[in-house]
Amino acid sequence: MLSVEKLNKIYHSGGLLRRGQANHAVKDVSFHIAEGETVAIVGESGSGKSSVARLVMRLLPANSGQIHWRDQEVSQLSEHHLRPLRSHIQMVFQDPFASLNPRMRIWQSVGEGLRVHRPELSRTQRRDEVAEILALCGMDAAILDRYPHQFSGGQRQRIGIARALIVRPKVLVLDEPVSALDVSVQAQILNLLQRLQSEFNLSYLFISHDLSVVRHVADRVLVMFNGNVVEQGSVEGVFSDPKDAYTQKLLAARPVAHPSERR
Amino acid sequence: MLEIRDLSLALPARTDHSDADIIAVSNLSLRLQRGRVMGLVGESGCGKTLTAQAILRLGEHQGIRRTGGDILLDQQSIFAMDDVTLRKMRGGRVSMIFQEPMTALNPVFSIGSQMLEVIHLHLNLDAEAARQHAIRLLQDVGLDDAGHLLQQYPDSLSGGMRQRVLIAMAMSANADFIIADEPTTALDVSVQKRIIALLRNLQRQRGLGMLLVTHDFGLVAEMCDDVAVMYAGEIVETGSVEDVFDHPAHPYTRALMGCRPEINPPGTPLPVIEGNVPAPGLWAAGCRFAPRCKHADQACAGKVALHQWSRHQHQARCVHVEAAESC
Q1: Which chain A residue shows the shortest CA-CA distance from B253?
Q2: Which of A18, B20, B183, B323 is the most buried (most CB within 10 A)?
Q3: B43–A256: do the CB atoms touch at under 8 Å?
């Protein structure tokens, strides 16, 4: 459904007076995601995993490579032609509230996407849609008129997910969606994502540094290191029989689950 | 020995509501012994960091007050210490390692000047001896080319290197106790592993008593001899790591350990704890976990004490321990 081919991203540092250095952050990355599937990208900081998310969202321009949405090549589309397609792929951030306007009520923030993608809706209809999506995400309609700062981390992430879902996308790009959450809240959000996926047959591109979370949620996994995909395959395959030396090192570094497993 | 005895801490009163104290940690007791690592584990807002900071009397300038109890370092109350003694105690007898190696170092001073400041405060060494001591400390934490490193500034170091520098600084005056607050949380997985190994080695070699504050049971499993689980400002369970991992007795401990993805089959719904951690001031009168607990009944309405579980030194604050364990 969504496939990317040989994506490349090169960042140039340096400024007005200093000669810049090129940083090849994403090198020839290719993968595809089928309907209803979860593909995870796992890696450490600087691996390029978040850059891939932003390239797929076209929040960043790629230096080369292609992004296919169904049968259409979208990496070169103008913003104008891209807009109708944007409703199909939405993003959830680690801290969704960093991108919310603190002076806007929750229902207005969550409903923002509707103004662009379903301009025919009246204000009341928009509000009703928001209430429905929030309910799906486990939030009560009583919060519609509240402001962002009044919510805990778990509630914020539920609101962030609702905000992405409001335009009824097919794919969610989730960038470290549970990394800032406490373990018990993390479990609630992972369950919510799982339930929404089966209910709407969503596809997930799940970016994470947390191997335990990836193993739990993903069907397939890409391991990134220094901009390269060093290994990809089914989650069971990669976790039980890692081929690449870096993958092996990463898996060996996981904390043990029980004191008797100390090495 | 470092002993926290019946400690209660209050947050600064919010003038817009009332001027009543908001208790954030209540009647907490904990013993750290040289040579042992105690994990203090809990979710955000449970009071674990406040407790850790109280040991060094940090947080007082933010208006956090002790409303009861005491902290004794080898029988001496840290609250009875004058400023000079207190300053010698911090870093000299009890050191702290923080979560954010980025913010714990001052960006405008070189690594060397920050290390030497600590060394001069605690040890009576001349300039060259202090420099040699700093180099030895950096080598002990696995940093090569220490002489060159002393001239560098924090922003030219990676997160893992900065955390090593902070660990070296914590070791600089032969403290007996180390308080480590989420020392690996901000680091990458492979770096985490090496920092854990380093802390564990230093702790063993030097026979340090360590309090490891964390939200991560994996880190507890890796490093700790004993563990105390906090919920809503109090310890709900404490015991050896083996006892607590093999036979978690308090329903909160059981639920918290049970919702980790790594111990559940991939793709299955994770067990959850319904609701949220209550904020200080909104705690239930009896058992504070009761509103979220599957086993709660009338018996949980009264005050619940920690009681000794059948195993050695294993305690839980629950009236239904037997029932909870059997399910």
Answers
A1: A184
A2: B183
A3: no
At residue B127, the 3 state secondary structure works out as helix
Instruction: Give the relative orientation of helices B127-140 and B159-170 as an angle to the nearest 10 degrees.
Output: 120
Q: Per-residue confidence at B327, pLDDT binned at 50, 70, 90?
A: very low
- A253 → closest Cβ in B159, B193, B263: B193
User: Exposed, middle or buried by CB within 10 Å (0-12, 13-18, 19+), for A12?
Assistant: exposed
pLDDT digit string (tens) for A29-39? 999 999 999 99
What ipTM was predicted for this assembly? 0.88
Fill in the amino acid letter for A148.
Answer: P
Chain A / chain B CB contacts < 8 angstroms: 109
Edge-to-edge order in the sheet of strand A228-234:
A89-92, A171-175, A203-208, A38-42, A220-225, A228-234
* A209 interfacial to chain B (CB closer than 8 Å): yes
Q: What is the pLDDT of residue A15?
A: 66
Nearest CA to B228 out of B240, B216, B219 is that of: B240
3-class SS at A182?
coil
| Cα–Cα distance for residue pair B126/B116, rounded to 1 Å | 11
The rounded distance, in Å, linking the Cα atoms of B307 and B208 is 28
Which chain A residues touch B248 with a CB distance below 8 Å?
A: none
pLDDT for B323 beyond 70: no
> What pLDDT digit, counting tens, does each position of B58-96 carry?
988 888 999 999 999 999 999 999 999 999 999 999 999
Å from B251 to nearest chain A CA? 13
Q: Which residues of B touch A250 (CB under 8 A)?
A: 189-190
CA atoms within 13 A on the CB side of B50: 29
The verdict on a CB contact (< 8 Å) between A191 and B192 is no
Q: What structural domains and CATH numbers belong to chain A?
A: 1-84+193-255 (3.40.50.300), 89-168 (no CATH)
CB contact under 8 A, A152 and B256: no
Per DSSP (E only), the strands in B33-150 are 37-41, 65-73, 76-77, 94-97
User: In whole angstroms, what is the distance from residue A114 CA to residue A165 CA?
Assistant: 10
pLDDT in tens, B296-312: 999 999 888 888 766 67
Residue ranges in chain A modelled with pLDDT below 50: none
Dihedral sign of CA atoms A71, A76, A82, A88 in order: positive
Dihedral over Cα of B226, B227, B233, B236: its sign: negative
Q: Which of A153, A252, A258 has its CB closest to that of B245?
A: A258
Which distant-in-sequence residues (6+ apart) come within 8 Å of A209 by Cβ?
A: A42, A43, A44, A45, A49, A176, A179, B188, B189
pLDDT in tens, A152-195: 888 999 999 999 999 999 999 999 999 888 888 999 999 999 99
Q: Do the Cβ atoms of B114 and B106 come closer than 8 Å?
A: yes
Considering the entire predicted model, what is its pTM? 0.90
